[in-house]
Write a structure and sequence with these properties.
313 residues; 13 helices
């Protein structure tokens, strides 16, 4: 959380302090003092840095401070400041996907035209950023299972943001297409709900029911019990609207549950392509890399004495 702030503080501390009048406080002195008094609270950090910018509006370190403000606003979950400082920061560094994702999510959660026009542009930038990130060689030389899932989830989320912006702009057919694309890339509750919402706006309630069912039954650790209750209510309302009652809705949910199991199996198989130990909890099922680059299946060592030497650079 404090990495950006510590870097900023370090920059301030190594500035030359010679040839300055002893009684005159420089901006570096003021910034050093402000940084030293903030503690671990991102809210205190925001207040201190905003106060500093008010005092030194032409600060030579304004870009660094605005970057720190954007990051600390995310830590503090301060949506207004995330938008304020996030957009300023993205103007100078459009490649920061964390800030880009938060700004895009907030803009496309609104319903006014201006916010969603900007959000649509950011969503496309976010999509391209994920694609560019996929092309970069990862640290350690290989993509892990978790990295692959994060990339897939991020790409799917970019289409979901597009769908929301397009829907709020009244472009419902395009919104449906974008939401469906997001669900194809990374099937989960979030894109499924968006697909259902915009299908409903186009009068396709029967098709929307499938996506409500997927959102309800899809394995997704990010969906809380309260979320599922809300999804169940939305699905029930739509089902009664189409069929007059809820008879047969159980079959719809069971079909979605089966689709969810298939998705989970495909996701597991995909993870194993990048990491043979993905999702394993039994150490004797692990596969390790040998010193010569060969693979060692620990199951083949059952009944033998194995010495494990843990070390670090």
């Amino acid at each position: 959380m404090r990495t950006a702030f510590l870097a900023l503080l370090l920059c301030v501390q190594i500035l030359p302090s010679q040839n300055r009048p002893p009684a005159q406080e420089t901006e570096e002195d003021a910034l050093r003092t402000a940084m030293g008094e903030t503690g671990n609270s991102p809210t205190e950090m925001i207040r201190a840095l905003e106060k500093h910018l008010n005092r030194f509006p032409k600060s030579k370190r304004r870009a660094e401070i605005e970057r720190a403000l954007a990051k600390s606003s995310i830590d503090a979950r301060d949506n207004n400041r995330i938008l304020k400082y996030g957009e300023i920061y993205l103007a100078s560094d459009p490649s920061d996907l964390l800030v880009l994702e938060r700004v895009t999510r907030l803009l496309t959660s609104r319903e006014d035209k201006e916010s969603n026009e900007r959000g649509l542009q950011y969503a496309e930038r976010f999509r391209k950023g994920i694609i560019e990130l996929e092309k970069q060689p990862p640290e350690g030389g290989r993509i892990t299972a978790q990295m692959r899932e994060d990339l897939d989830r991020g790409l799917g989320r970019s289409y979901t943001f597009q769908a929301r912006a397009l829907g709020h702009l009244g472009r419902f057919e395009e919104a449906v297409a974008a939401a469906k694309r997001g669900f194809e890339v990374f099937p989960s509750a979030e894109p499924a709900l968006d697909a259902a919402k915009w299908l409903g706006k186009t009068g396709k309630d029967e098709e929307a029911l499938r996506y409500y069912a997927d959102a309800f039954a899809m394995p997704d650790s990010r969906v809380t019990d309260e979320d599922r209750i809300r999804i169940r209510q939305q699905m029930g309302e739509t089902y009664r609207k189409v069929h007059g009652n809820e008879k047969g809705m159980g079959d719809l949910i069971l079909a979605a549950y089966d689709r969810g199991l298939t998705v989970a199996e495909k996701r597991k198989a995909r993870a194993l392509q990048f990491d043979p130990n993905a999702n394993l909890t039994n150490p004797m099922e692990f596969t390790l890399n040998g010193v010569s680059g060969d693979k060692i299946d620990l199951k083949t060592l059952r009944g033998k004495v194995v010495v494990l030497d843990f070390w670090a650079t």
